[in-house]
Sequence to fold (447 residues):
Amino acid sequence: MVRKLFTPLVVLTAAMFAYAPIAIANAPYESTMLLVQKIFYFHLATWMALAVAVSVCAVGSAMYLFKGHEGADRVAFAAAELAVVYCTFGLISGSLWGRKAWGVWWQWDAKLTMAFMLEMIFLGYLIVRKYGGPGSEKLSAAMGIFGAATAPFIYKSADWWRTIHPQTSVMKTLGKNAPPMWNVVWFCGTAFVLLFLVLLALRVGLEERRAELDRLYLEAEA
Amino acid sequence: MFLKVAWLVLRKDIAIEVKTREIFYTTLFFAVACVLVFSFAFVKEGVPVEGAGVGILWIAVIFSGNLALGRTFERERYGETIRALLLVPAPRAAIYLGKLLGIVALMSLTELLLVPMVAFLFQAPLFSWPMHLLALLVLGTLGFASVGTLFAAMLMRSRTRDVLLPILLYPVTVPVIIAGVLGTSALTQTPADEPMATLWISMLAFFDVVFLTLALWMFEPLMTE
Fold:
């Protein structure tokens, strides 16, 4: 099933990414930030995909921890790796935007600090996995669940602490005020989520082969 | 049964600690050393930088807490008593709770000496809102220790536990540290921002509930081989 869907998924994702720059170029200019605001489409899309990655990682981790599904552990691992990639990209695109919008590369505001923290949590996940020794899968699963538990705080942090970062209510009003921009936002978000799925499928496939290889080695030795 | 097991584990830890006082003395000494080291960075021409005391207090609490966590479980591992502890026919969560309370007690004892010291050395008006400060410290310590106990326990099996504990613990407990530091800053600034501090206290309580629930829920499968 996954194998059959994989090629169309790749084609669809590639097509969406090819069209994304055109869609973004055609979207109307924002009244105060003009061209700089175009970063928003990829910036927000990254965080949308990150939310998916974190959720997948948490569900996989929980399934591994409580039910002992090894396949779920592989999915969680792949999702955690991609969460690090997406989070890095989100921090970089946010930094570029911040340079133009606020005049500084980095601002210690609540949302940025919390996003940085999320990056550290998932890097921690990978570090445990690599250096934790035997049984590290369980430790990293705990890390994945804690990472996901703090993620909603990151999402709402800008609303609660009223900091410099735009609030999430922007998303609620955008659909009413500027439908063309709203459509592009969702288009880019979908494209990033699809890219996540493609990469996840590839990465899980690799892990499965690695597990299979380990099994064969053990069999050959026995 | 549940609370009784937790109480027995706690009493065991207290009994060992009262006899040796090893963790208490080392933790306290480390916390004081921390304050001393930071004083060099945050005291300019004899006058402490504004708000430095609060940051130093929390850093000392967190660092020394980390040390206490590592030592508590190292003792269990060294004496090979953790296996016996896990073989007890009782809910594992009760063992977790007992361990957690022991660490909270130890950290609170350190704080009892650390807070007046910081207030004295950095001229920080920490005692103008004593009940608020108490709530911040207790909830902050509980939040940090709830995740810390879980991680320290599960890292016991790992060879690289000394390095991995802070690496895993600090990012996860950042919300607690932020809430603690900002809440205490709101109290010590002039004029004190009492509603802000109350907001942070309720935030801390919220984090504590989330972390404690997750830890109690995960301790059992994490400690099962």
Remarks:
- Chain A has a mean pLDDT of 84.
